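Researcher: Let's do a round of design. I'm pasting the structure tokens now; please hold your answer until I've finished.
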């Protein structure tokens, strides 16, 4: 197994950051196997979605509707509504595992690998790529 940790700047507000290019670069010299993408944070997740056509903004809107930034959360440190950031990984898992075929991630035509981070208190995130040869 081979692994690499990258740093992603998400900024100070909720963000969906496309990390497909970095993931593709990580596996380009591999053959067949599995790529695992993992975010070692309690307030971020990994989503496989279309980007650039508004879907990333739609995802953030849906998160706001499902998990509003109100003061109803028991977990209260950080910015207003930060408790919702801690339940986000229950809906958007902090990992994704994808097939790699001949050094290419087997994504669908419009699919991208995205880091989803609703926690503006932590603008820098880590993402771990791990490749398991098949």
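Researcher: That's everything. Go ahead.
Model: Designed sequence:
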């Amino acid at each position: 197994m081979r692994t690499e940790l990258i740093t992603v700047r998400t900024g100070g507000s909720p963000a969906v950051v496309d990390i497909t290019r970095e993931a593709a670069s990580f596996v380009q010299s591999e053959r067949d196997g599995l790529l695992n993408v993992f975010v070692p944070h309690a307030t971020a997740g990994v989503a496989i979605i279309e980007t650039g056509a508004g879907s990333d903004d739609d995802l953030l809107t849906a998160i706001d509707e499902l998990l509003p930034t109100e003061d109803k959360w028991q977990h209260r440190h950080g910015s207003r509504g930060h408790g919702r950031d801690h339940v986000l990984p229950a809906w958007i898992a902090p990992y994704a595992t994808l097939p790699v075929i001949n050094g290419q991630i087997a994504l669908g035509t419009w699919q991208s690998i995205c880091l989803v981070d609703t926690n503006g208190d932590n603008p820098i995130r880590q993402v771990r790529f791990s490749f398991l040869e098949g």
